[in-house]
Design brief:
Keywords: Flavoprotein, FMN, Monooxygenase, Oxidoreductase. The protein is of the alpha/beta class. Helix content is 38%, strand content 15%.
């Protein structure tokens, strides 16, 4: 009796239109080109590289405010470049799409500060311009600095944001799916551009939002963009179970991530959905060299460039805890904050006997944020990815970088060929839209 082959891994590049994303301080590395992120040529080069490596998509992160929890202001973020400056990721997409044909694009956009009418229009436009390769990472926001920038005292409470999100999704889906019939466009000199009887105004009067609108865009290849989501709270899991097609999870170890994946799969079953129709992608940062020893040396080299202050700026924003008053040698488990204790689960569950200091936490998140660093030869890293797929039940990875574009060059030129030899990764893009590509495994001998 034979055994079923493991499902093919999905790989996204995880990036941000900013000089620092998940590895603060690495912009100072002599081979890093993050100083060029404000200019288009680097992004076109990266898009071609990701397509050469058959990445499913580039997952573009975004924030709408600075990380200003550390020290009570944005000075730390400004000084270290910790996800600041942060430029609009959507404007990169058409340019990268113009030099690729298979690469998808997942763009983070917050629904808390933009009417659904405008959001629907922008994503429909991008779906047209990419020939159906656009995805939306649905976020509700987590920074009060963003709320203040939008004229509010603070962001909505957590569960209130998800109540808004439910109403929002009903409104944007109505625009994408119901305003125009499939055959509304005629483009016929005799009959006209479109049939008015096949286009209608959407009337949405929900508990949070009111809208009476005719969608301004013709039906795009996907109509609704592929829907990404990353919530892990009970409200976030429920939202993902109802709406998401790809879910992004993060944690430093299988011990942390596997229970989160189980809870998501259970929520999908409870919502009446196939739990494996949704792709679960874990955060990871690969460091790949010819040998394990060389990879260890390379990782040590990278770690020498980590900026501890920048790491604590990001960590303070993620956790809602100001780390500035604490000494670097102070144990983190004694920080008196409910948010801090809850978020420290990422570390204490992975290593329950370790008494983490502030310095050690900063060093840990300094390469790759809250995710693991897979380092070693291509075979070693591939084996570790296979172990995560098996034991954490993930479908693939959002791959962050340490040095740009070196990390991705290591993946494309070293790791991907080994994954293909192991029959864990595709050898060509499937045809169709991004949604169709992710639903298809390339036939394997």
């Amino acid at each position: 009796m034979g055994f079923a082959k493991p499902r093919q891994l999905r790989l996204n590049a995880f990036a941000m239109h900013a000089p620092t994303h998940q590895s603060p301080g690495l912009w100072r590395h002599p081979r890093d080109r993050s100083r060029e992120v404000m200019r288009l040529p680097l992004w076109l080069e990266l898009a071609r590289l990701w397509e050469d490596g058959l990445f499913d998509a580039v997952f573009l992160a975004d924030v709408l405010g600075p990380y200003d929890v550390y020290g009570g202001d944005a000075r730390g973020a400004i000084a270290t470049g910790a996800q600041l400056p942060a430029h609009d990721p959507m404007l990169l997409v058409p340019a990268m799409a113009s030099v690729t044909s298979g690469l998808g694009f997942g763009v983070t956009a917050s629904l808390s500060y933009e009417p659904p009418f405008l959001m629907a229009r922008r994503f429909s436009t991008l779906d047209h311009l990419t020939d159906g390769r656009i995805g939306w990472n649905i976020v509700t926001g987590y920074l009060d600095s963003a709320a203040r920038a939008m004229g509010r005292d603070r962001q909505l409470a957590h569960d209130d944001r998800y109540r808004l999100a439910e109403d929002y999704m009903e409104a944007v889906r109505a625009l994408w799916e119901r305003s125009w019939d499939d055959d509304a466009i005629l483009a016929d000199p005799a009959r006209g551009w479109a049939d008015p009887d096949r286009v209608r105004v959407v009337h949405h009067h929900g508990p949070e939002l009111r809208m009476d609108a005719l969608h301004l865009c013709a039906p795009s290849p996907q109509r609704t963009p592929l829907l990404f989501q990353a919530g892990s709270s009970p409200a976030g899991l429920g939202f993902a179970a109802r709406h998401a097609e790809c879910v992004f999870v993060s944690g430093p170890s299988i011990a942390v991530v596997a229970p989160r994946v189980r809870r998501l799969r259970d929520a999908l079953r409870a919502a009446g959905r196939d739990p494996y129709a949704v792709k679960v992608l874990a955060l990871a940062t690969p460091v790949v060299a010819d040998t394990d020893a060389q990879a260890r040396e390379l990782l040590a080299e990278y770690r020498s460039y980590v900026d501890p202050r920048g790491a604590l700026v990001l960590l303070s924003g993620w956790l809602g805890v100001d780390f500035a008053p604490y000494r670097l040698d102070e144990p983190v488990r004694f920080i008196e904050s409910d948010a801090g204790r809850s978020a420290m689960e990422n570390f204490t569950r992975a290593d329950p006997d370790r008494n983490w200091t502030v310095r050690e936490v900063a060093e840990h998140v300094g390469i790759g944020g809250a995710g693991p660093v897979f380092h070693g030869s291509a075979r070693t890293v591939a084996d570790e990815m296979a172990r995560w797929q098996r034991d954490a039940d993930v479908d693939g990875f959002n791959l962050a970088y340490a040095v740009l574009p070196e990390t991705f060059e290591q993946v494309v030129h070293r790791l991907v060929p080994v994954l293909q030899e192991m029959e864990l990764f595709k050898t060509a893009y499937a045809p169709g839209t991004l949604r169709q590509k992710l639903a298809t495994e390339i036939a394997r001998s």
